[in-house]
């Protein structure tokens, strides 16, 4: 393999000092998926498995400089966004994504952590919808995020299908709506709508565990890794679902709260 051709990926997101979510989960996932992972830090959280105690977004200039550093040297084939904090930072990231070519973009529209902490300011939802979603090759909202982005109320499978179509109308190419937050007792089903109009459900047995911290980050990072390795969208999404299911099914004992996934599973 020639220099600079090893599959390189990028996460644009927030850190998790507790190591289970955000950029830390992203890089662990990329490592496990055998791609090289780089990171643009947008925000820093003080966090553990019990919750998010505090966070601060970095000055935009330093974020811009991180993008410029990577563009000047690495050859990123696929990237993802995660926690982007507020409207100004969403806009700043969008400007950089338009300026440089970092390959296929997966957008995880992170809004609220499982513990209830807001990782995106309320008034930034419209910025994500209007500026970031149209750039997404893959968009991976959970149910509450899909509802916020579309204004729809999702109560059943038909509602998930309608929301996925509405998100494509907003400009996202492929949409994965994660059903992990739905109220069904025994199944966690994700709905996938591909850019070519094909759609399918990904179902896994619901697991009775609190160790699900960083699930969304892990899914979107695994999709990013698979895309960087040249997989097509459907294959990348199926690989990522299997990776997350295994990572939840084989928990590791870390922390006293919502523990992290097992990225070696
Ligand atoms: N912290 C950061 C920096 C994140 O990006 C995310 C999710 O994307 C979380 C925390 C929330 O993780 P979870 O809701 O899986 O506990």
UniProtKB/TrEMBL annotation:
Catalytic reaction equation(s): 4-amino-5-hydroxymethyl-2-methylpyrimidine + ATP = 4-amino-2-methyl-5-(phosphooxymethyl)pyrimidine + ADP + H(+); 4-amino-2-methyl-5-(phosphooxymethyl)pyrimidine + ATP = 4-amino-2-methyl-5-(diphosphooxymethyl)pyrimidine + ADP
Annotated keywords: ATP-binding, Kinase, Nucleotide-binding, Thiamine biosynthesis, Transferase
GO cellular component, one term: cytosol
CDD domains listed in its UniProt record: HMPP_kinase
Enzyme Commission number(s): 2.7.1.49, 2.7.4.7
Pathway(s) per entry: Cofactor biosynthesis; thiamine diphosphate biosynthesis; 4-amino-2-methyl-5-diphosphomethylpyrimidine from 5-amino-1-(5-phospho-D-ribosyl)imidazole: step 3/3; Cofactor biosynthesis; thiamine diphosphate biosynthesis; 4-amino-2-methyl-5-diphosphomethylpyrimidine from 5-amino-1-(5-phospho-D-ribosyl)imidazole: step 2/3
Residue ranges of domain Pyridoxamine kinase/Phosphomethylpyrimidine kinase in the record: 16-262
Keyword Transferase: yes
Biological process per Gene Ontology, one example term: thiamine biosynthetic process
One Gene Ontology MF term: phosphomethylpyrimidine kinase activity
Any matching Pfam family: Phos_pyr_kin
Similarity annotation: Belongs to the ThiD family.
Protein's recorded name: Hydroxymethylpyrimidine/phosphomethylpyrimidine kinase
